[in-house]
Amino acid sequence: MITQEGVFDPLGDSVDGHILTRAIIDTIHEPLIVLDENLRIIVASRSFYKKFDLTHENTKGKMFYDLGNGQWNIPALRTLLEQVIPAHTNVEDYEVEHDFQVLGKRIMLVNAHEVRDKKGGQKMLLSIFDVTAQHALELERERLLTQKDLLLTEMRHRIANSLQLIASILLLKSELVDSKESRSHLEDAHERIMSIATAQAELDPVGKGQDVSVEKYLNALCKSLTRSMVDGRNQIHIKVNASGGFVVSDIAISFGLLTTELVINALKHAFPDGRAGEVVVTYDVRKTGWTLSVGDNGVGHIEPKEGARRGLGTSIIGALANQLHAIIRKESSSQGTKISIIHEDI
User: Fold this and answer.
1) How many CA atoms lie within 13 A of 237 on its CB side?
2) What mean pLDDT comes out for the span 323-340?
3) Average pLDDT, whole number, for the chain?
4) Which residue, 63, 164, 203, 238, is most buried by CB atoms nearer than 10 A?
């Protein structure tokens, strides 16, 4: 369109509209191009000319695909652009990776939209976004995250090994002391450290950003507890009943510590004198929350004497339940004991 003063207006506006159009186009930092219905260049923004070292004079009337060294002459892109005006479609974030004449290797995103003027003329507004730096940052971020994941896995593995070593030393020390009370404290510390090491070790296969399958985790954990805590001569079995569900690793560790602590307590107190029995770990997830429980068919819980000091195991279970915003429910009879950790969503 030619205005009254003979100035070409790329978007078909009036004279004042032309001034406003040019002002808007030239203040946008990303390259913009106006194409006619045959995909020939009508005009472009200053940022386009500057970025690709071109001018209005050496681009006006040229086919978009003929620019530079043919970097835009991509069959798939041509097909998309040729449909924008006839089919009234848009091109959204089409990625072009090319070694450009002036810029070198770059990754560009191309967007195209149809523009109609007041007299029904059809043109296309094409925008080009250089996302090379953004892609490089994303790749670096992925590399750093992968590296962090490997380091955390290695650190977790080393911590578990160190804890097992410390636990072994405590067990050896307990065999050397004469005091029955000191030996009991050392054995207690050994069991607690082993519970942390076991809970951590069973999370080693968990990858970056992955949730933990509670069922698989509890099964693996209880197999490990069976190997390390249950004497082969005792007829005690640890069984898992879980209804699925996934949790983040922090919650899984809390589940692991709770399960280990409760299983240890059952093994220590429910089956005296080599009695046979079964310990059942149950995890039930519902829409309104979840319940983690450990039950046994042992002799039942003996209530401590009035004024007796709270045991370490009880304190640990209480602290972990509080951390999970859960309550503790205890049921005990001569047929066994069951302790449940119950969380209800608010």
Assistant:
1) 3
2) 92
3) 80
4) 238
Distances (CA, A) of 262 to 53, 61, 196, 308: 72, 80, 13, 20
What pLDDT is stored for residue 291 in this prediction? 95
DSSP state of 299: S
Query: Nearest CA to 117 among 37, 231, 176?
Result: 37
Residues 6+ apart with CB under 8 A from 239: 222, 278, 279, 280, 281
Q: Helix crossing, 312-323 with 180-201: angle to 10°?
A: 30
For residue 16, is pLDDT > 50?
Answer: no
d(CA 19, CA 14): 9
> Among the residues of the chain, which ranges form H helices?
15-27, 46-51, 75-84, 132-176, 180-201, 214-229, 249-269, 312-323
Distance CA 295, CA 238 (A): 10
Exposed, middle or buried: residue 219 (CB in 10 Å: 0-12, 13-18, 19+)? middle
Cα Rg, the chain, nearest whole Å: 35
Q: Is 336 left (phi over 0), alpha (psi -120 to 50) or beta?
A: left
Contact present, 201 and 260 (Cβ < 8 Å): no
| pLDDT given at position 168 | 80
What H or E segment, with its residue span, contains residue 246?
A: strand 246-247
164 vs 333: CA distance, rounded Å:
35
Q: Work out the angle between the directed axes of helices 180-201 and 249-269 (0-180°, nearest 10).
A: 140
In sequence order, which residues have a C-beta less than 8 Å from that of residue 27 and are 6 or more positions away? none
Residues 6+ apart with CB under 8 A from 195: 256, 257, 260, 261, 264
85-141 residue pLDDT tens: 888 888 888 888 888 877 888 888 889 988 876 676 788 888 888 888 888 888 888
SS3 for 307? coil
